[in-house]
Model the fold of this input.
Amino acid sequence: MKKLLALLIFCTAGFAADAQSSNPTYNKTLADSLGADDYGMKSYVLVVLKTGTAKITDQARVSELFRGHMDNIGKMAEAGKLVVAGPLGKNDKAYRGIFILDVKTLDEAKALLQTDPAVKAKLLDAELYEWYGSAALPVYLPVHGQIEKIRP
Done:
């Protein structure tokens, strides 16, 4: 029985060692430039935007704040702080959209969100979460700029 157990442990250890292997197409320069760890991943802050608490009835003011929101998205993306943004479909939680911010801390993300006029005016509120994802996320934005026919 001891021999069988030892053989089972040896075989399992062999499979575990084989489960991870080096990537023959690994590009250290690219990985380092994107801040990737050994798994090609890094930490971000995920922001879930939801309907805020402000009750603004002046539609011109609401339009102005949301135009500022869209402009701010562009500024954060240009600065390399925003890597993903987009609206959510209708839902029962009043969630409106998401951001994935390329920042190190929740406090840095909170400060960055205060540059958004719609967030600052409480038309949008934000829930923030630490998130671990592909370090390659920032490189899709230049490609997107080449495929969007109309800008919002």
